[in-house]
Amino acid sequence: MTSEDHPDSNRQKTVLVTGATGYVGSRLVPRILPHYQVRCLVRDPSGLDDAIRDQVEVVQGDVMHSHTLAKCLQGVDVAFYLIHGMGYGADFQKKDRLAAENFVAAAKAAGVSRIIYLGGLGDDDDPGLSPHLRSRHEVGQIFLASDIPTIELRASVVLGPGSLSYELIRSLTQRLPMMICPKWLATPTQPIATEDALAYLQESIELPLEQSEVFEIGSQDVVTYGGLIKMYAKERNLTRVLISVPLLTPYLSSLWLGLVTPTSAEVGRHLIEGLRNPTVVRDDKARKIFSHQPMTTQEAIHQAVLQEA
User: Fold this and answer.
1) Coil, strand, or helix at residue 237?
2) DSSP readout, 13-72?
3) C-beta of residue 216 within 8 angstroms of C-beta of residue 286
4) What residue spans of 113-163 are helical by DSSP H?
5) What is the mean pLDDT of residues 38-66?
6) Is 58 in contact with 50 (CB distance < 8 Å)?
7) What percent of the chain stands above pLDDT 90?
8) Nearest to residue 116, comparing CAs of 42, 15, 4?
């Protein structure tokens, strides 16, 4: 029996999780802890959940400052990059680019064997692709162009309590019996349940990989953002009326959202600019290559409602 065949061999693999205090990262860490040695790269260690802090290796660093990354990546086999800069301000695209370049340089120097990046769906050839989605794709291209084998998972809305998009849907539906709806509520999207996204991320650690790959992941069906609101209302037994209007811009929409949701106007504007673009799976090779198969959008909403605090 070789070391690769040994059932405990995976425990020796060191997996770095960046964004470990974020929505996806904080849920991924406890999921992979039973199988790997997990290292968390954080700017502020106090943000880590007390329940896992003593079970992981905590390293303090910042992808915006390259000199802090060398020690963080030393001895790492697989690195998750779960960072994006919507909250960086007006120049978030430049900062996203710099952060990714810093990370690639440090990962190459440390001999990291795989990067797993969670990016966003959307058509690269769409001239109207939002700055937010274009930046997510650019970060993916930086990883794919490196010499490090990379898996880029492209996803749309992640449906689960605590995710930015889900909380937006929940807040709108719960607080507004009647909604004046901009055009972006008719945009097609292919959301994914949090549990499905985490399953794809975990499986990516050991997925056989001959070259860097982009996988588009989503639920089993395509819906609209207005449809998500209606699904949530149905789960909550709420009656909601949606009235469509054509003139509500992303900026005005973000201000409107700021009145009824916890999302800041700045982050909300970037988010809504992305919602104007169709985010659907156009290449379904993930369903053929990954063993995990995702649930439907209705099942994802139902599960999320059950998990709400």
Assistant:
1) coil
2) -EEEEETTTSHHHHHHHHHHTTTSEEEEEES-GGGS-HHHHTTSEEEE--TTSGGGTHHH
3) yes
4) 131-144
5) 91
6) no
7) 62
8) 15
Residue 48 tokens, joined: 């880590």
Q: At what angle do helices 194-206 and 23-32 cross, to 10 degrees?
A: 50
Burial of 257-268, coded b for 16+ CB within 10 Å and e otherwise, reads bbeebebeebbb
Per the listing, tokens 């985490």 go with 198
Q: How far apart are CA 39 and CA 57, in angstroms?
A: 5
Amino acid identity of 87? G
pLDDT at 77: 97
How far apart, in whole angstroms, are the C-alpha atoms of residue 57 and residue 158? 27
Q: What whole-number distance in Å separates Cα of residue 126 and Cα of residue 111?
A: 36
Six token digits for residue 137: 């794709």
| Per-residue pLDDT tens digits for 246-276 | 665 555 565 556 655 555 545 555 566 667 7
Spatial CA neighbour of 194 closest among 222, 153, 157: 157
**Beta strands, E only, the chain:** 14-18, 37-42, 57-60, 78-81, 114-120, 150-155, 158-159, 178-181, 188-189, 192-193, 213-216, 223-224, 241-244
CB of 295 within 8 A of CB of 160?
A: no
* CA quadruple 155, 156, 160, 165: dihedral, nearest 10: 140
Cα 200–205–208 angle (5° rounding)?
95
What is the amino acid identity at position 287?
R
> In 3-state terms, what secondary structure has residue 151?
strand
Q: Give the Cα separation of 260 and 139 in Å (integer).
A: 32
Kind of pairing, strands 14-18 and 37-42?
A: parallel
